[in-house]
Amino acid sequence: AVGSLYDLNADSRLNHRFNVTAGVLADECRRVLSSYFAGLRGVGGVACGCGLSLEAHAVHAEALAGVGDLADETLNFGPVQRRPRRVLLAIDSFKGSVSSAQAESAVVEGVRRAWPDADVCTLPLADGGEGTLDAVAARGGELVTCEVAGPLGDRVSARMLVDGEHESAVVEMAEAAGIGYSPCTESAALAATTYGVGELMLRAVRAGAKTIYIGLGGSATNDGGAGMLQALGAHIVDECGCNIAPGLAGLEHVASIDLAPALRALNGVRIVVLSDVENPLVGRRGALTVFGGQKGLPTGDVEALRGYDGWMVGYGRLLDAAIFEMRAQKLLRTPEGARAFGSVLGVPGAGAAGGLGAALLALGAELRSGVETVLDLIGFDECVRDADLVITGEGNMDEQSAAGKAPVGVARRAKRYSKPVVAVVGGRADNLDAVYGQGIDLVLPVCRRPMPLDQALDPQEATTNLICAGEAAARAYDLGRI
C-alpha cells in the first residue's frame, strides 16, 4: 500500500503523513517470506503443520522471522526520505499581464524552491474565451491560420485548431470578431458582423471536422449571429429579397430567414458552444442591455437601446420560424440530451457574444459550460488523480468567480478526487465565501509587496510575484500536514 496500486502516504483524505524508505532489509525480508510461504505450500513434501489455526500460523511466522533474535537490536533505516510531491497546475491567464502558460511557468519555479524534486504537470487553462485555442492545442492538433472577414469588413488573420485524429476543430470567435478589432463606438457596435466566424466554421468542415467547438468570449458584435449564418449560406433578406446589411443595423430590416443552405453546408457536423454566459437574447438581461455598452452602444439612452432590442426581438422571432420550418423538413434535430425550446429569445446562453449563441442554437448547437468542456478537452481528470496539490488562479477573484469562472471549475473537478486546491490571484474581494464553498481551500494574492496597479500588471513584475506565490502555496501545503 505504498507506491503500488494504492499509495497510503499520498491519500489526501488522511490527516497524517509518514516517510517511506525503499529497500530496507529487502533481501532478508524476501528470504523470510519465501521460506514461510514455502512451508505453507508443503515444499519438499513437508507442510508447516499449523492446520487451520490462525494463532498457530502467527507463532510459526514469528519463529521463521527470527523475532527473538532481533528484539533487542536497534535497526538503522538510513536517512528519512519521501517521494516527490505531485503538483498539478491549471491557471487561467492574468488578463493584461501574463498568459496562462507564462503564469504556470513562474509558479513552477516557485514550487521548486520549496520542493526541488517536485513532479509538476502543467495544463494551460481557459473558459471558452481568450486562450482556449492555446489551452487545447497543448494536448495536440494543428493551429491553422486563415484570412477571414473582420467585424468591420477588413480582412484579418484568424487561427483555429484542427485535430485530425479526433476529427474535431476548435474556433475562438474573438479570433475573427473580437473586441480588439473595434473602436467600440456606437457606429462600430451597429456595424460589427460575425461573418468571419462563419468562414472559420466552413474551413473547419472542409478540413474534415465532424465536431466544432466554438468559444464565444470577447466579442465585438451585436448582430445576433446573422453574419455567421450568412457566411454559411443562410438567406437573411429584407422585404425586397435583398441580403440585409452587416451588423445589428441590418436586423432592423430583416423580413425572412432560410437556414437550409447553412445546414446543408455543415453536413451534419456537431457544434458545441463553449460559454458560461447565462443571459437570454433579449430583455433586461439580454445581450444588448447587459453587454452592449462595453461594445459601444449608448446604455444611457434608454429609448435608443429599447429600439435596438426591438430589432433583436423581431430577428429572434424569425429565427424561431426558420427553426420550426427546418424541423418540419427534418433538416434539424434537437441534440441528444439537450432540452427542447420553444423560442430562442429566452434560452439561457442565447445572448452570448451579442446573440451569436441564438444563431448557433438555430443550427442545432449544444450549449456547454466553457470551463467544463475545456477541462474535458485538455484531459484534466487524467492528471488530477495522482496529484497531491492542485494550484489554479486568475487575475482577480470575487464572488462572481463562483458563477462559472475557470478556477472554480478546476476546484469542483479536483474535489471529486478529494484534492486540496490553492488559487493564486492578482486581486481578491473582501468576501469569498461563495468561492470557498465551491472547493477552493486557499486564495493567495500574489503581490509580494505594495505596488501600483500598472507595476503589478507588468509581465516581469507579475512573473516575480507568481514565483513567490508558487513557493508560498507549496509551503502552505506542508504547513497543513504538520
What can you see in these coordinates?
The protein is an alpha/beta fold. The chain folds into three domains: 8-70, no CATH class; 86-125 and 380-480, Glycerate kinase, domain 1 (Rossmann fold, 3-Layer(aba) Sandwich), CATH 3.40.50; 132-372, Glycerate kinase, domain 2 (Alpha-Beta Complex), CATH 3.90.1510. The protein is built from 19 helices and 13 strands. It has helices spanning 26-41, 54-65, 67-70, 100-114, 132-137, 173-177, 186-191, 195-206, 226-231, 260-266, 287-295, 302-328, 352-362, 370-377, 380-384, 406-416, 433-436, 453-457, 459-480; strands spanning 86-91, 119-122, 142-149, 155-163, 168-172, 211-215, 235-237, 256-258, 270-274, 366-368, 389-397, 421-428, 442-445. A six-stranded mixed beta sheet has the order 3-4-5-6-9-10, with helices on both faces. Helix 1 packs across helix 2 and helix 4 (100-114) packs across helix 19 (459-480). The model has no long low-confidence stretch (mean pLDDT 89).
Query: Judging from the principal axes of the Cα atoms, what is the shape?
Result: elongated
Strand percentage, roughly? 5-15%
Taken together, the total number of domains comes to 3
- How far from one another are the termini? 22 Å
Please report the total strand number as a whole number: 13
Task: Name the poorly predicted regions.
Answer: none
- Spatially, the strands of the biggest sheet line up as 3-4-5-6-9-10
Q: How would you name the CATH homologous superfamily of the largest domain? A: Glycerate kinase, domain 2
Supply the helix-strand structural class: alpha/beta
Mean pLDDT metric: 89
CATH class (first level) name of the largest domain: Alpha Beta
Rounded to the nearest angstrom, the radius of gyration is 30 Å
* Main sheet summary: 6 strands, mixed
Q: Architecture of the largest domain, according to CATH?
A: Alpha-Beta Complex
- What CATH calls the topology of the largest domain is Glycerate kinase, domain 2
Measured as a percent range, the helix fraction is 25-40%
Number of helices: 19
